Each structure stands twice: as structure tokens, then as C-alpha cells.
Amino acid sequence: MPSLLRRTGALVIDWILCVLISSLFADPARSGWPPVVVLIAEYGIFLGLFAQTPGMWLARIRCVSADGGRIGVPRALLRGLLLALVIPPLVMDERRRGLHDRAAGSVVVAVPS
Predict the structure, then answer these.
(1) What phi and psi values does residue 32 have, to the nearest 5 degrees?
(2) What is the Cα Rg of the chain in Å?
(3) How many Cβ atoms sit within 10 Å of the Cβ of residue 80?
(4) The 3-state secondary structure of the chain, one letter per residue
(5) Per residue in 41-75, pLDDT tens?
């Protein structure tokens, strides 16, 4: 089970990328929504298709379904939307699964070495 530090580090890297990408078409200093929309899209595409965002790849963690497979784009979009709400990730169970993970039927695991 990956540490909260690795999970948080991955999220920070992804957020920085989202701010940089959204600055290509909007001013993140004036409106906070473009980076959030990019984050949700990033999660939908990268988690849905590859089981990792760029930040997760660097942190050596993956987001998979309970059976170990990919969660798919719709569940990844749901997970990204709930993550953007901030509160769901803070409500964790004993396995460090936030509400966003439970709603999407996903689990974050370490990448095997």
C-alpha cells in the first residue's frame, strides 16, 4: 500500500502539470476552473487508459480496479471529479481508500519493482 506522501506527491505533480497546461488557453490566476477541468480530463484519459497519471508514474504508483485491471475512462472520470471536490479523498478507510476510490471501485497500489 503506497504511503500518503507518495500519493500526495503524485497529486502535486499532476496539479502543476494541469496549471501549466491550462495556462496555454486560460489564465489560472484569474479563474481556478481551467486547471480543475484539465485535472479531471487527465484522470479520465491517463487512469482510464494507462492506470497511471504522469505524477503517479513518477511516484511509482497505479490506480487499478479491485481485480487489478484498468478502471476504464468512465470510472476514471468519476474518480477525477470526486478528487476535485477535495473532501472525498480526505475520508479514508483502513486501507487508505478515499470516498473517490470507493465510488470508482479503484485502489491505489505500488508499482512492482
Answers:
(1) -85, -10
(2) 13
(3) 25
(4) CCCHHHHHHHHHHHHHHHHHHHCCCCCCCCCCHHHHHHHHHHHHHHHHHHCCCHHHHHHCEEEEECCCCCCHHHHHHHHHHHHHCCHHHHCECCCCCEHHHHHHCEEEEECCC
(5) 999 999 999 999 999 999 999 999 988 899 999 99
